UniProtKB/TrEMBL annotation:
This is Succinate-semialdehyde dehydrogenase (NAD(P)(+)). GO terms for biological process: gamma-aminobutyric acid catabolic process. It comes from Caballeronia pedi. Belongs to the aldehyde dehydrogenase family. Gene3D superfamilies: Aldehyde Dehydrogenase, Chain A, domain 1, Aldehyde Dehydrogenase, Chain A, domain 2. Pfam families: Aldedh. PANTHER family: SUCCINATE-SEMIALDEHYDE DEHYDROGENASE, MITOCHONDRIAL. It comes from the Bacteria.
Amino acid sequence: MGFNLTNGGLIRRENFIDGEWTPAKDDARFAVSNPATGDIIENVADSGAGDARAAVDAAARAFPSWRNTLPKERAAILRKWHTLILEHSDLLGELISLEQGKPLAEGRGEVAYAASYVAWFADEATRIYGDIIPQQQRGKRMSAVKEPLGVVAAITPWNFPAAMIARKIAPALAAGCTVVAKPAEDTPLTALALALLAHEAGTPKGVLNVISASRDRAVPAVAEWLQDSRVRKITFTGSTPVGKYLARESAGTLKKLSLELGGNAPFIVFDDADLDAAVTGLLAAKFRNGGQTCVCPNRVYVQTGVYERFSKLLSQRVAELKVGPATDPSSQIGPMINFRAIDKIARHVDDAVAHGAKVLTGGKTLPELGPHYFSPTVLADASADMVLCCEETFGPVVPLFPFVDEAEAVRAANDTPFGLAAYFYSDDARRIDRVARLLEAGIVGINEGALASEAAPFGGVKESGYGREGSKYGLDDYLSIKYICQGGLD
């Protein structure tokens, strides 16, 4: 089976600026490759500072008109965009799998997930309420209203090329903001396809602008946005070092930031847990997208009383996972995104083994499948002196850490500068309440491995960032509150 996207008309090679498809100003291009094979899919515009500036010019021109569009009119455009995304779900799913590598079922699932955010914020566009403040002085009336921030710059990662762009663009447009966006260099084609569908849905020119850029040229392109006072907000999903860079470099114009950054998620299995359910939940949480998600469990703590039994159950299930390209319908784990990812995973496994870990299953690259494949791996007897305990592996590796009691597990789970997601399995009602409160994370899964929902606030604490995406709270990050005081009313 192969993918044939040409007839679908979704692949675009150029930037989308001011309602037009335009090449980079110096006609530069870079290659987008299929991680399953290394084959080039397309050569797309390689943008620089001039292209980034042109995108802001268009967004700034469009903002006054867009902010004055009625909320129900913005909602109607978002609903049409949602409809078009679903109508093209098969092609979009194939495109995601082609440029990102995830299995086709996951690619199509991501399309539905992305569309859910568009539908959610279409409804939220009509629910941006303010407040009448109770009168404090005679003759004065006070109120608070919410207004769109202005031009928003969205910078998205490669692991969910549709969901992350939709999760940022939809609330921005719903709030009345205009957008300039740069998808990751590994996966720009999905974002450009979504821009095409947004345009077909009736988004006015300049309201949404998307540029692509290679790894080297992305820095000056994004720097243009960081320095431009017309850009009032940066929303970014990616690594903590890059998030810190964006915060520093945007401080000169005091932009509002939403930063969804790195994680080091713990997954705790207590001895009173349903072990079969815990194994199933861990598989869902860990091996989605081959372990390449920011909320994947990176450290699995198992109480000593059930450690051996859990290890055996998990290893059996992991060994059965089918690894292969998205073109194989039976594939459950696809390729990693690039050589850098493979090198990091192999380094983590080698370091763990050197420090005493035991490989229960996997632990090796799979060159017979292609250059970017790594076998799903379970490591027993992991410890805090291993690199994988403090660095996010971002791959299909499960290290098992034994622990004795609850206090030890919670202490180890929180012993990280990160705090995005955390999971635990227990059937003790008192423990559930207690541990949920003690874990230092923005998202906690209790007897559940699949956490994402458009209706729930997504974001972290500590060095995993700030701001929330999704839910009613996600809209507030694109709005400012204006206090209005009217006097002389006696």
